[in-house]
């Protein structure tokens, strides 16, 4: 698809600006043909001896006036045209970001952060460049060259013009051949840039792990390999660009030789005047820029197209979950129910949940326990509607979840993920993420419920303390409690806590659970944990093993049953006793 069709939506809204810029550019091109003609005329006057002072000063003033006029026009078209290109970049980045926020985890599994960042920066820049600089070079080539050529024919001599332009078609052939290659090599360069981004991101975010495993040298060496790749790919692009430049000089050189050679012949035979020959050579010089422009245009267009390909490839990916065509309205999630739910991650071969069933009435608490990797987090994630599910396996208030609007379901659930995600903002902003207009009282209450208040009191600036990237300046337990406060602030119908108390001590854990039980009476809670004491109060407990329900029941029933739960409970009680 061509660049213009692809960006039609943009050109349509900005056509007035483009038209203005192009008209101004054309005007400047026209005006530019006047000075050479005046110079030629003056020389003819000198030769004829008919030049007088009044005429000369008139010409000089006119030249100065023209220069000033063109200065203003050029200023206006440059700001108009390049204003368009930065606007396009802004719009594209906005679209891209909006697209990313709609994508589900499987998309981010396929597209690394580094690659996405490369798209948002380098590629969108290349597209904007085509819509600005590219348009400029195109207009310069088409309008600039035709104006000069028409002037040559009408004011000087068409034979001289034809002769001098003989080498030009050669240029077009070579340029179109090189242009295709530029595109291929530019794609490779952008790809390499994405890889470099990815590596840098991973190294920086994992710097502490790298250091503790003494892998700095290896990582620097590996990064060196990646940057060498970027350098090589870019060098290959500039190698092609370098081929353009001398080629243009060569062709211009040939043109000049023909112009001077054949032109002198014509002057000698009185077909044209000396002044005309000089004007002609100045015009020939004015053709150089349109020719260079043409090369640049092909170059920039190929890059813009290559980048537009890359961005589009990412933009066309649809979220693998869509809203139902005929959504069923559910007011309150009276009940959450799984019926023989089996779930396989998009990239996985084996299911992570197999035939899981339970019913949890509103206000109830479901505990999910089991060995690591048994599917606890996977079970909670089903409530977040991030992955497509088979039909009629998960019900909310008796309605299959796929018949309810995605946003509706998401509004019900406050989720505390197993891995905390903090933004490098203040503690307050992090807590208020899901409810930016929360009052101070609401925040204070959430902080209190998460047993986070005494920690906040010790922070240098209290709630205003900036936590650093992903909360580097908080302890593991503090991060967990911040994440809990964030979820509690929403006071959502369903609270899903994924192993969210693993980094706090047993006493803090029981305090938080008490708060939750008291404040959330009548609302539904899901808790996954390795420490069974966190779910002993739950209304129902599932013990998962390799995605299947191994045991289930209340704490008492499971203790009585004497299986995995009982053994684990006894062991944990013994360990707790030893620690006290
Ligand atoms: P833990 O106690 O360590 O948190 P868990 O019980 O929460 O473990 P899950 O995270 O639910 O375990 O993982 C269950 C299984 O699903 C594991 O075998 C894991 O490898 C697999 N799995 C998890 N996430 C993905 C994913 N995004 N794609 C493919 N497989 C996954
Ligand atoms: Mg987990």
TrEMBL record:
GO terms for molecular function: ABC-type oligopeptide transporter activity; ATP binding; ATP hydrolysis activity. Residues 336-571 form the ABC transporter domain. The keyword Secreted does not apply. SUPFAM superfamilies: ABC transporter transmembrane region, P-loop containing nucleoside triphosphate hydrolases. The keyword Signal does not apply. Gene3D superfamilies: ABC transporter type 1, transmembrane domain, P-loop containing nucleotide triphosphate hydrolases. Keywords: ATP-binding, Cell membrane, Membrane, Nucleotide-binding, Transmembrane, Transmembrane helix, Transport. GO terms for cellular component: plasma membrane. Its main location: membrane. The chain crosses the membrane at residues 15-35, 56-78, 131-153, 160-179, 247-268, 280-301. It holds the Pfam family ABC_tran. It is a multi-pass membrane protein. This is ATP-binding cassette domain-containing protein. It comes from Paenibacillus sacheonensis.
């Amino acid at each position: 698809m061509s660049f213009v069709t692809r960006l039609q939506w943009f050109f349509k809204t900005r056509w007035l600006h483009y038209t203005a810029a192009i008209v101004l550019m054309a005007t400047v091109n026209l005006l530019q043909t006047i000075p050479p003609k005046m110079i030629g005329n003056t020389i003819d006057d000198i030769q004829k001896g008919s030049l007088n002072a009044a005429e000369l000063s008139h010409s000089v003033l006119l030249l100065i006036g023209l220069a000033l006029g063109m200065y203003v026009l050029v200023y206006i078209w440059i700001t108009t045209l390049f204003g368009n290109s930065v606007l396009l970049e802004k719009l594209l980045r906005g679209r891209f970001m909006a697209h990313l926020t709609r994508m589900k985890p499987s998309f981010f599994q396929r597209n690394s952060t580094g690659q996405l960042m490369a798209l948002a920066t380098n590629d969108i820049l290349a597209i904007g460049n085509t819509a600005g600089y590219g348009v400029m070079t195109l207009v310069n080539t088409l309008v600039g060259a035709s104006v000069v050529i028409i002037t040559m024919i009408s004011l000087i001599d068409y034979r001289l013009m034809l002769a001098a332009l003989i080498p030009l078609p050669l240029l077009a052939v070579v340029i179109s051949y090189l242009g295709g290659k530029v595109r291929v090599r530019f794609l490779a360069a952008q790809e390499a840039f994405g890889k470099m981004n990815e590596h840098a991101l991973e190294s920086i975010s994992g710097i502490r792990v790298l250091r503790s495993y003494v892998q700095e040298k290896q990582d620097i060496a590996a990064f060196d390999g990646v940057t060498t790749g970027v350098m090589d790919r870019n060098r290959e692009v500039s190698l092609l660009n370098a081929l353009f430049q001398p080629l243009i000089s060569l062709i211009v050189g040939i043109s000049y030789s023909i112009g001077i050679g054949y032109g002198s012949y014509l002057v000698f035979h009185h077909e044209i005047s000396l002044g005309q020959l000089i004007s002609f050579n100045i015009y020939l010089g004015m053709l150089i820029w349109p020719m260079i422009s043409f090369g640049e245009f092909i170059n920039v267009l190929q890059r813009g197209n290559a980048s537009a390909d890359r961005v589009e490839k990412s933009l066309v990916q649809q979220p693998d979950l869509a809203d139902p065509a005929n959504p069923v309205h559910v007011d309150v999630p009276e009940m959450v129910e799984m019926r023989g739910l089996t779930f396989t991650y998009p990239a996985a071969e084996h299911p992570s949940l197999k035939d899981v069933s339970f019913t949890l009435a509103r206000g109830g608490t479901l505990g999910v326990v089991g060995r690591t990797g048994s599917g606890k987090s996977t079970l909670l994630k089903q409530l977040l509607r991030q992955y497509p599910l088979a039909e009629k396996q998960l019900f909310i208030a008796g309605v299959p979840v796929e018949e309810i609007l995605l946003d509706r379901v998401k509004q019900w659930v406050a989720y505390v993920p197993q891995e905390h995600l903090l933004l490098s903002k203040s503690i307050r902003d992090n807590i208020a993420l899901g409810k930016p207009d929360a009052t101070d009282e609401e925040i204070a209450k959430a902080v209190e419920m998460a047993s986070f208040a005494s920690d906040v009191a010790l922070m240098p600036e209290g709630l205003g303390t900036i936590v650093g990237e992903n909360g580097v300046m908080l302890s593991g337990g503090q991060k967990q409690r911040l994440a809990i406060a964030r979820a509690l602030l929403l006071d959502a119908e369903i609270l899903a806590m994924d192993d969210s108390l693993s980094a706090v001590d047993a006493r803090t854990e029981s305090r938080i659970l008490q708060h939750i039980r008291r404040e959330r009476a009548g609302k539904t809670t899901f808790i996954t944990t390795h420490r069974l004491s966190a779910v002993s109060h739950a209304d129902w407990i599932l013990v998962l093993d390799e995605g299947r329900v191994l045991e289930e029941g209340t704490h008492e029933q499971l203790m009585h049953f004497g299986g995995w739960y009982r053994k684990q409970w006894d062991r944990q009680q013994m360990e707790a006793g030893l620690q006290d």
